[in-house]
TrEMBL record:
InterPro entries: AB_hydrolase_fold, Peptidase_S9_cat
UniProt superkingdom: Eukaryota
Keyword Signal annotated: yes
Annotated protein name in UniProt: Peptidase S9 prolyl oligopeptidase catalytic domain-containing protein
Gene Ontology MF annotations: serine-type peptidase activity
Keyword entries, A-Z: Signal
Organism: Polarella glacialis (Dinoflagellate)
Residues spanning the signal sequence: 1-20
Pfam families: Peptidase_S9
Single GO BP term: proteolysis
Length: 292
């Protein structure tokens, strides 16, 4: 890239930040309000805990929706309740083309950089050291990509999603601390799996995220089960030459692609992710860690 093009892109980025706007929009069916901000011509929706001006830099969790979805698909997962209790921002980005089949991967990086930078300003005051990204399905695959490619995010997580578009990954990078919530009875993971089916997809995800370190987990923490959750445990791969990875490996009955919720499952993905990112204990009871 020549120097002139670099300066043109930098000027466009700065101009877009100056022209970024924020408006408050109502959330149909929910007793909360989300503010719409427009950065680089794309919207994102922000929830501030208790609708207050943040008094000090706060953590932020970016939540990415799945294929052919919209940001509001993710509003009913309990992130707002958790944000009120733990004082963090919730950020719902949108795809470049609304309801597209997948995120833009490398082409979306400037949008996420600009959005994160914009949110460091008042009234949001995002702490740039505590920005996290997670997503469901296609949004989860994008989140795993972003944690590898961008230092904007301190950690990344995926719910019912595998690594994807590996040709776009910079495999020389180590990425950041990650968590994957994986249902072995998920029909979508089976449908999109490579040769070898869902187990091969699961192993590919681990081997990719842990490519620079050991691929043997160091501890196993049982989680509660129920009529709808046949098995559940957290496998922890400690940081070495690869960053820490936690795999919440579970199996539902019947199979489902849904984001686990305490309304029907023995654990909640939202509570688990907030604990992973922010550090507070999840609501669900966790068994004793078993070191292996």
């Amino acid at each position: 890239m020549n120097l002139v093009l670099v300066w043109v892109n930098l000027f466009a980025f700065q101009l877009d930040l100056v022209n970024a706007v924020a408006t408050v929009v109502s959330t149909t069916g929910l007793d909360v309000r989300h503010e719409m901000v427009t950065v680089m011509g794309r919207p994102a929706y922000i929830y501030r805990p208790n609708q207050t001006v943040m008094k000090r830099p706060s953590a932020g969790i970016f939540v990415l929706h799945g294929s052919e979805g919209v940001p509001s698909d993710m509003y009913g997962l309990g992130m707002e309740v958790a944000a009120d209790a733990n004082s963090f921002l919730v950020v719902y980005p949108d795809m470049a083309s609304s309801r597209a089949g997948e995120w833009g991967y490398a082409s979306d990086i400037p949008y996420f950089e600009a959005l994160a930078h914009f949110l460091t300003k008042e009234p949001y005051r995002l702490d740039p050291e505590r920005a996290f990204v997670c997503g469901h399905s296609a949004g989860g695959s994008m989140s795993l990509f972003l944690q590898n490619e961008m230092d904007v995010f301190a950690s990344g997580a995926a719910v019912e999603a595998a690594v994807g578009h590996l040709e776009s990954w910079n495999m020389s990078k180590s990425g950041h601390r990650s968590m994957v919530i994986w249902n072995h009875a998920d029909p979508v993971l089976e449908e999109y799996a490579p040769t070898g089916g869902e187990p091969a997809y699961y192993n590919l995800t681990i081997s990719t995220l842990r490519r620079h370190g050991t691929q043997t987990y160091s501890s196993r923490t049982p989680l509660p089960t129920s009529a709808s959750v046949v098995s559940a445990e957290i496998l922890t791969y400690l940081a070495d030459n690869a960053p820490e990875l936690q795999m919440l490996s579970w199996r539902s009955n019947p199979g489902t692609h849904k984001w686990p919720s305490t309304s029907w499952a023995s654990f909640g993905a939202t509570e688990t992710l907030v604990s992973f990112f922010i550090g507070n204990a999840p609501d669900a009871e966790i068994g004793e860690e078993i070191v292996v």
